[in-house]
Amino acid sequence: MKTARRNARGEVTLQRILDATVQLVGRYGYDNTTISRITKATQRPASSIYWYFEDKDDLIVTALENSYTRFPRDGRRPWQRFDPSTPLQSQLFEELAPELQASESETPLRLGITLALEGSAARSKVQEPFRRRRAAALAAIEKWWNDAFTATEADDERRHGGVWWMSTLTLAFLDGHYISDVVVDDPEIVSARSRAVAAFLTFAFEALCRGNASLEVPGEDGADTPDGATEHENGPSALLDVTRRLVAQHGYEGATIGRICTESGMQRSSVYWRYKDKDTLIKAAVADAFLELLIPLHDLPTPSEDWVADLASAIGATMRAAGDNPDTVKAGLLLEVQQWDPPTAGGTAVVEGSAAAEAAVAQWFSTARVAADSVEHLAWLVLRLIEGLMLGSVLGRPVPVDDLIRLLAMMVENGPPREALP
Questions:
Q1: Do 53 and 95 lie in a common domain?
Q2: pLDDT reported for residue 2
Q3: Same domain for 136 and 107
Q4: Does one domain contain both 19 and 63?
C-alpha cells in the first residue's frame, strides 16, 4: 500500500474500498475479483484505487490485513501456557471453548481459507496474511503440546512425534470448525462440542504417551498441491474432470463455460445438451464427487465390539480417497466456504451433503454404546476432524492415513472404556 498517500485522501473512501474488496473476494475469489468490479461496487474510479495501491494484489493483501485488525479474536492469546498442575482435559476445554464459538472475527479466516484453496492465488502474495496467521497459530499450538509432553518426561523421539500429531489434530478441529460452523449461537452446544474435542485430544495424547510404537511423522510442511494444468483427453469423458480442476484453480466464478469448453474440447451446445447451466455442471463435477468421498461414513457396518475400529476404518477410507483426489477436495471446500447469495447449487449440495453424512454418523453412534446426549456432538467431531484434515492435506500437511487409523485404535486400547469416549 502506498502509505505516503494515505493521508492525502479521505479515510472513508479508503475504508469503503477495503470493505468492498473483502466482500468481493469472499464471493468471487481471487481470480475474479477485478479492479473493474471493485470500482463498480465502490462507485469510485480506478484512479482512486491506484492512488492507494500498486495493483490488485496489493489491495487484497491490505484489505485482508485490515479485516484481521477490525475483527480481533476477542483480545485473548490462545495456546500461550501449558500448566502441568492443571488436568490436561480442563486446560483443553478452556482453550477450545472460545475458539469453537462462531463469531464475526472468523469471517477473515474463512476468506483466508478461500484464497489458500484457490490455485490461481498460489503464486501471488494474497495468501501471505492467512499463511502468517496460520503459521503463528500452529507454532503456538506446537509449543503448548511440546510443554505437555515435556511434563511427562517423554524422550525426544516420542515428544517430537507426539507434538506433530497432537498439533495436527488440534489444528484440524479448528479448521473444520472455521469451514463449516458459520453460526453457533448456543453456549450449551459450544460447551458440549468443546468438551468432546478436549476429551478426544486427551485420549490421543495419553495414547501417544503410552504407545509402544511411534507413529510416522512426515517431513517439514511442503508446498501446496501442484496447481499446473493436467493433460486430459478431449470429449465428454473429460468434461467433469476438467470442470473440477478449473473450479479448484479459479473458483466457481472463474470456471467459465468458455474455459471449460476450451479445455475439454467440447462445444457449448454439447455441454448445454447434457447440463442446463454451469451451476448444474459444477454440482455434478464438484459437489457430487466431493460427497462421494464421504460414502464410507454412510456405509458404516452395524456397531459391534469393534465399532471403534469400524469408525477408524471409515475415516481412513475417506482420507485415502481425499488424498487421491486433491482437486475434488479443493473445489469442494471452495464451494463450501465461498459466500454466494443466492447460494449455488453446488455449494448447497456440499453443505447439505456434509450435514447428511454427519446425521448418518450420529444415527450410527445412537446404535453403539454411546451416551445419547453425546451422539450429535460426536458426529460433529468426526466431520470436523475429516474436513480439517482434508484442508491440511491440500495445504501441505497431509496425515499418514495408516498411522491415523492406528492412533484411533490406540486411543481405546488399554485406555478409557469405550463407553467413556467423548
A1: no
A2: 66
A3: yes
A4: yes
3-state SS string for the chain: CCHHHHHHCCHHHHHHHHHHHHHHHHHHCCCCCCHHHHHHHHCCCHHHHHHHCCCHHHHHHHHHHHHHHHCCCCCCCCCCCCCCCCCHHHHHHHHHHHHCCCCHHHHHHHHHHHHHHCHHHCCCHHHHHHHHHHHHHHHHHHHHHHHHHHHCCCCHHHHHHHHHHHHHHHHHHHHHHHHHCCCCCCHHHHHHHHHHHHHHHHHHHHHHHHCCCCCCCCCCCCCCCCCCCCCCCCCHHHHHHHHHHHHHHHHHHHCCHHHHHHHHCCCHHHHHHHCCCHHHHHHHHHHHHHHHCCHHHHCCCCCCCCHHHHHHHHHHHHHHHHHHCHHHHHHHHHHHHCCCCCCCHHHHHHHHHHHHHHHHHHHHHHCCCCCHHHHHHHHHHHHHHHHHHHHHHHCCCCCCHHHHHHHHHHCCCCCCCHHHCC
Shared domain for 93 and 198, answered yes or no, is: yes
Please state the domain count of the chain. Answer: 2
**Model confidence at 33: pLDDT above 70:** yes
Give pLDDT tens digits for 252-288.
Answer: 988 999 999 999 999 999 999 999 999 999 999 999 9
Q: What is the structure's pLDDT at 422?
A: 52
Residue 241: inside a domain, yes or no? no
Residue pLDDT, tens place only, 339-393 = 677 788 999 999 999 999 999 999 999 998 777 888 999 999 999 999 999 999 9
Residue 143 in any domain: the answer is yes
204 falls within a domain = yes
The residue range of the domain holding 94 is 88-210
